[in-house]
Request: fold
Amino acid sequence: MTDRPYPQVILDVLRAAGDRTVFEDGDRHTSGAQLLDLVGRVRGGLDRAGIKPGDGVALAVGVTAEAFAAIVAAHTAGARVTGVRPGLPGAHLAHVIGDATVVADATRAADLPGVDPLPLGALLDGPAVDPVPAARPGDIARIMHTSGSTGLPKGCLQTYAAMAAGWAAHPGRWPLALRRLGPRLRRHLVFGTLASQVMFEYGVMAIAAGGTLVAARPDLPGAIIRHRATSTVITVAKLRAVVEAARADRSGLESLRALMVSGSPLDPSLLADALDVLGPVVFHGYGQTETGMIAMVSPEEMGEARVRASVGRPPPENAVEIRDADGRPVPAGEVGEVFVRTPAQACGYLDDPVESAAVFAGGWVRTRDLGFLDPDGYLHLAGRARDVIIVNATIVYAVPVERVLAAHPSVAEAHVVGAPSEATGEAVHAFVVPAGGVVDPAPLREAVRAELGEAAVPATVTVIDRTPLTAAGKPDKRALRRPIAGR
Reply:
């Protein structure tokens, strides 16, 4: 813990970087001192715009030194900062912005139909001020929105005290997996929007580790090769594409040291392929918008299949309990719902006291994920609590079925959903993306039957060209369910 108000630690990191390049955008190199000056200039602009502690600021920014500075500056002003993700549907966009002042840079202004944003360039057009943090510890620092895959995005509220307790800018606090990751962040690719919680925090970590953020297009693996990148954050779908490209030609990827998989669970078969093709570069973990990082497994630990099937060991600073339906802890190896406590967790949902009470209770966060802890403390996920499918009174978890299907050589991706069935109450339905050839449902069903039993066997196996994704890049299971509902 620290008594320094957030984001003083980031200001200190930039000050310590001095003349070292911390942000590279083509031929433009921005040093720590220059980035600190940009923070002061944006803060001056926010002051002139009348932004006070507690005011809402919604940031629609891309990947520039100015975008990074805007995020830090808004926090020094004590604002409630919301990141506006690209590609939000109209209703989601209005919901996320709420009553906040919208600040947009030139790369994102077109993403805001019907909104009159405050140009980031106008905030920079003035003298720098000393960006002294203005918030109190209990003030809301950040509203982090969930993906919205089950409706309107929920706004997770994180206080300035919680952000000060975070790990990213504090190498001395990094858990073992992050200590192994830090030296690999020498040239860290960033793309999309720095207002993303994941993109920003890995960016802060890279600078704190002595690395440089490199602005890039998300055309992996091309961007890795062009920029001689050592690390980046990657979705499961992008990882699969990188593995396939590298399987054909790995030249140019010699610089790569770390890929941090984010957004959705990583199937052990894809992880094994990635390790075989790319080498020991994949860091696999588990976290939520509500909690931040819960667990992570580093390549050094991935020698055993059992460990590769996990999402890592929670660090000592995190508490993890697996509980049954009555809220009682269960023994190691038994599946239940995952409850966690982390130093930087959110404290509730914006304007939703009912859901806040259901998820944030007694200092714990109810993840609504199912999982178990093995005897060595590694956490294994078994799916979402709502991904339980009850077939003839037998509980079937979606994730184990997906893993069996994805392990078949004819399958590149597999996704499982449940739907009502007159014969069995509910039934398992599978959607598979071919690995390049013809998919025969019969051996897939037999593989599930042999490993998981008759109740888990898919009633239907549907071949799809690609997996539908939500705006956050996660598999869209609601979209997969629609054709089943129409049968």
In short: Residues 32-48 form the longest helix (17 residues). The chain has three domains: 8-164, 171-384, 392-485.
